[in-house]
Amino acid sequence: MARIIAGTHKGRRLAAVPGEGTRPTSDRVKESLFSRLEGYDAIGDAVVVDLFAGSGALGLEALSRGARRAELVDRAEPALRTLRRNAALFDAGAVTVQKSEALRHLRRREGEPIELLFLDPPYAFTEQQLAEVLAAAVPQLHPAATVVVERESRSPEPQWPAGLERFQDRAYGTTRLWFAEPA
After folding, report:
1. Torsion sign across C-alpha atoms 150, 143, 75, 66
2. CA 91, CA 25: separation in Å to the nearest integer?
3. I need a surface site. Which of 42, 55, 99, 149 has the fewest CB within 10 A?
């Protein structure tokens, strides 16, 4: 069972998405990721979008650490049930759960620019599909946004669209994180 590692909800347990096909972010990777994000000053008062949210662990961790609002997006019913359950542990005004494919969500999204974007697509998600989602994200991003892509460590580097460039990447066992920002 996942948990919130730090912040106002530290120690709170989160329900996991039942079944196969999900790849929860380990506590070790999550701790390293959020340590970096705090070093970049990317969390405080941020509007966060967690695509392919699964249990919502990344978006909810950001809320616990001071993000203003989190949009948790997934299309799978088991994930949505889990997202709603986990989101209920937080202030209702701070978190929303959206049933949508990532690309469709970004193309239809309205509201404040995204300041912190998490993308942790499923194994079967192709590099081309990821490139399309990243391209759709560019017009939604705040000029000082941080984008985090989580993939299996053997996956190739994402194809960064015009307007987005990688500034760092890190591998943690079987997981690789890429960090990007608006160009």
Report:
1. positive
2. 23
3. 99
The distance of Cα 157 from the centroid of its chain, to the nearest Å, equals 17
Structure tokens at 15: 């329900």
Q: Hey, is 2 helix, strand or coil? A: strand
Q: Look up residue 104 and give its DSSP letter.
A: H
- Return the closest-CA partner of residue 53 out of 91, 94, 99: 99
Global pTM value: 0.96
Q: Tens digits of per-residue pLDDT, 54-73?
A: 999 999 999 999 999 999 99
pLDDT band of residue 20 (cuts 50, 70, 90) is low
Does the pLDDT at position 176 exceed 80? yes
* Fold topology of 2-182: Rossmann fold (3.40.50)
Burial of 24 (0-12, 13-18, 19+ CB in 10 A): middle
Above pLDDT 70, what percent of the chain? Answer: 97
Domain segments of the chain as ranges: 2-182
